[in-house]
Amino acid sequence: MYRFLLSRQWVILTLLAVLLIPTMIKLGFWQMHRYEERTARNDLVAHALEAPPVPVESLTAPGEKITTRERYRTVTAKGRFDTDREVVVRRRTDGDDNIGYHVLTSFVLNDGKVLLVNRGWIPADGPSQTAFPKVPAPPRGELTLTGRLMPDETTEASGIKDLEGLPDRQIMLINSEQQAERLDARVLGGYVVLKTPEPKNDTPEPIGGPGNENAALNFAYAIQWWLFAAAVPVGWWFLVRREKRDREAAEDVEPAEAEPVTV
Fold it and tell me: Where would you find the membrane-spanning parts of this chain (predicted)?
């Protein structure tokens, strides 16, 4: 009755179904793992953003690395901006994907340590980006700023190559160790994305806060893969039943066609 399952065509189809089921189940678990990772990351970001501001030196020091729990924490610092050795970070985009620079300015604390502050985005002056752009000046004198604490940028984490031979005062990555060597100063680990004082007029465009990763999409993909895995044996059995009916119908027709015609 089901001897056709031993044919080459059906053996291949059955093996394909057998391979698809565990593959789809595995893909579903992978998507669920991504869902759990993204949910945990969103929870960490939300916790960091909701935490009350703390002095920056309570979370970082020269040579220290910013952990995932400290990332996006709001910190405060008291000191003054030093624009003499200000640099710009190349190939950064604004909210509309326009290419420009991020402005990285040293903020000298009252104890002499240096905090790197990303003051925001400015457009590129031209396509070549070889000359140092016109950078709006920060507030003068002593002030207290607040910002989001960020870890040092690396090629491994960002995918941005740290190119050499760049124009003067232009960099690719914000890295406190590199800047400590350039400035010959005690630079706090990580950097801060400026929140206040708020930009006014022609000051750099503020950098938006972190958004939530779409964890629900991974959850939906996981359910989708598992539904596909459940559908494979159902579809296989449907094809088997249809093949069986077609063969039985063909067998019923053949004898009738073979009967001799009587006169």
Answer: 219-239
